Amino acid sequence: MIYKTFDQFLDFELLDSGNGYRLERWSNIRLKRPDPQIIWQPSLPQSEWDNVDAEFVGSGEKGRWNKRPGLATQWEVYFRPDIKFVAKLTPFKHTGIFAEQAANWEWFTELTTPSFGHPSYPSSTVGGENIGGPLRILNLFAYTGGATMVLTRLGHSVTHVDASKPAIAWAKENQALNKFPPESIRWILDDALKFAQRELKRGQKYDGIIMDPPAFGHSPTGKTWKFNRDLPILLDTCVNLLSDDAKFLLINGYATNASALSLNNLAEDAFAERGGKIEAGEITLKHQIKSPHNKDITHREISTGIFARWQN
Ligand SMILES: C[S@@+](CC[C@H](N)C(=O)[O-])C[C@H]1O[C@@H](n2cnc3c(N)ncnc32)[C@H](O)[C@@H]1O
Q: Is the Cβ atom of 219 under 6 angstroms away from ligand 1?
């Protein structure tokens, strides 16, 4: 089991965790959001926890945001100087950005664009030169397009699939915010599994595939998605969609009853013939603490989801 967290996310910071809540900074907006796994005590004083712009109270459909008067309905959040996102407070306690995914974004940036970050790399150019050229990437259950924006900035060619019209509309806002041309991303409003199966029949190939399926979901026509029932079929389909020199495949899971080990076992079977390296674990967020009891404890890490990832 491994734990992965990101090195850098310019505008996001987990400030503290405790008593069932996270305290976070998203640019200059401070949020307090529930997280039921947080059964320990906060490390910052109450005054820090009281100093928030919005707090989500309750849970699920019955939950709501208590906002300070005058709080903007949306604002910009920078991941890196050249990648930003539109943040909004959604009715289900989210902001449209899963910051912890930055650990995966850093991983596939390194795998697909080893020269990224090098002073000679034209990071502000869409379609900039990558080692091996731009790659074809399939992003399934792609939501507001965090991964899509990062890969597009790296110059890759992304097919972004989601069953929700509002999610695709929000992803297009992110495309516009980053000043990517309209044709830079291929938008598909469809059921992820149906689309992948159709791409296989059409003989399409991808150099990298990302999937972030929910525990339960719906296709645009109302067909249900069930993680445990449908993921094995989707994964097999996607392994067959990978090109001969494909670089990566990533499975991410939130709020499912699957474990990282179950994803690992599934991936091992799916890639048995192909080979390559598989790793699985939990994706985390981290904040500093000063433990009064143990000077060696300087950080606290919280689990946000599970992943399994394959690389060639
Ligand atoms: C957990 S979110 C993905 C988070 C995203 N990858 C990120 O890092 O920001 C799940 C997404 O799956 C979509 N979805 C649910 N069922 C689907 C289906 N059957 N086919 C395609 N997308 C689906 C939802 O609309 C939602 O946008």
A: yes
